[in-house]
Amino acid sequence: MDKYRILIKGIVKCCEKYLVVEKWYDDRIFDPYQWEFIDGVMGFGETPEKAVQRIVEEKTGIPVQVDRPLYTWGFTAGEVCSVGIAFECTAQTSTVVLAEDLNDSKWVSKEELAEVITNKAVREDIERSGLTSSFDLDDFGKVDLFVEPMD
């Protein structure tokens, strides 16, 4: 088993709206489906940029242009240390064809993101990245990337 894994997140923008997908988390919680940005695991030998392009296209059918890294995060679960990189991407089309592991998708404005994303970890990642509570993605360019020390 790998002791490290690299997670990749794509924050996809098209026509001033952002793509969020509804994904199943756990049927033991009150709301097992939660809205989130597109994410996945970087494969061996992939660059982070190629990984985010592959993941977004596999999960949504949308080819993207990678604009810039936005923030990083990390955590340890059991014996596996995970490090993540979130990228801002521009969609080449707004037509979504969802992978089977996703329940739904929608394009939302920047102002609607704060209402749609309820996952505490995602909200904390965005806040730590220096965003305002209105999720102003333009603020990402003013923040240095960081990786928090893991316990």
What does this structure look like?
This protein is α+β, with helices and mostly antiparallel strands and 151 residues long. 19% of the residues lie in helices and 40% in strands. The protein has helices spanning 48-60, 110-116, 120-128, and strands spanning 4-14, 17-24, 33-36, 38-41, 64-77, 80-91, 102-108. Strands 1, 2, 3, 4, 5, 6 and 7 form a seven-stranded mixed sheet that branches. The chain starts with a strand and ends in a 23-residue tail after the last helix. Mean pLDDT is 82; it is low at 130-136 and 139-151.
Summarize the structure.
This protein has about 150 residues and is α+β, with helices and mostly antiparallel strands. About 20% of the residues lie in helices and about 40% in strands. The chain has 3 helices and 7 strands; from the N terminus they run ββββαβββαα.
Q: Give the overall form.
A: globular
Characterize the main sheet: 7 strands, mixed
**Oligomer class:** single chain
Query: Overall pLDDT, averaged?
Result: 82
pLDDT < 50 stretches? 130-136, 139-151
H and E string: EEEEHEEEHH
Helical run tally: 3
**Helix content percent band:** 10-25%
Indicate the proportion of strand residues.
35-45%
Query: What class, by secondary structure content?
Result: alpha+beta
* Rg, Cα atoms, Å: 15 Å
For the record, give the distance between the C-alpha atoms at the N and C termini, rounded to a whole number: 20 Å
Number of strands: 7
